[in-house]
Amino acid sequence: MATIQRMRLLQIDSIHVVARSPYLVLHARLGDYPSIWLEEALEEGRIAESWAHEACFVTASDLGFHRAWRSQSESNHWADRHAARTRDSHAKEMQNLLARIRASGPVRASDFERADRGVSGWWEWKPEKKWLEAWFASGELMVMRRERFQRVYDLAERVLAKLDPPYDEAAYTFSAPELRKRFILDSVRALGITQARWVADYFRLKPSVDDRELAALVASGDLLSVQVAGWDNLAYVHPDHAEVLDKARLGRLRATHTTVLSPFDPIVWDRARLRDMFDFDYTIECYVPEAKRQYGYYVLPLLHRGRLVGRVDAKAHRSEGVFEIKALFLERDVEPSERMLDDIAQAIAATAAWHGTPKVRLGRCRPAHITSALRARWRS
How would CATH label the architecture of 176-250? Predict the structure, then answer.
């Protein structure tokens, strides 16, 4: 819960070539934790599902601000456009579905048979799934719990009633500028250190955030502004991080963590920030046609002691207990030390063990000469 609160949200994605993204994001920060914690937190009402950056888990204490923001702002998000079109074209069917849930309780999309068997794909949802998602996007339905990661939908009033801490509608008394300020401050806190142009993407704020808007928050003491060597633009830090900022100024801040990241980790969301801050160019290639992929279908960035040093094309074979690394690529300017190889091998082994696939199988590497060195570490 503390980890989700620090990030302010946890993006949801259902691809499970390795662990589904929200579980992997938590593993990168927590290590070997029981993945059931996430389902328990949702069912117990300590977190809830909401549109934030995209579809995300947010803490119960933050949910009111997200719902208030969506009620006040005009959205051009695809989910809202889809919901509006669906309501316009299937108003009667949607009302009937809502009445069924009100009378009979929660439902899953799988509770409804589809008439066109054999049709599949992200955008080939059965009608009831589209209606459920439209009600979710507009806020009348929420997710009560998940079963095998399937959403179980119920009336929002029932889900809100079980939140812990209790749902507080005081957020609706905030004006749109006050809510925007809150999301800006939360974004800067979550990012750690940021330029103005990276702030809006965190919660998909529109219009974008600029230095003029942040200057007012610096003047009021809500933010700190700093100069970063090599950056032409001002950077901003939340006062909650003042102690860490002082360590950085004194050269006493040292990164020690090595881990495997989800493609939907907040560290790698913003491609412009990723290039400028980490000199790392990254695309989620599962959405790229196979012939155009450079690294692989589901490629996980490697974070090593504050630097993104490479990526792995991975797949968990759960029935065999094998964690396959189809390919491991270090960045071309990375000179791998023995300590770096130790840390990478340990991080991948820890991720594999947490998946329940403790045997690591390695394909090719770039540079090629590290292949045997990594295999030897996993044998020992």
Answer: Orthogonal Bundle (1.10)
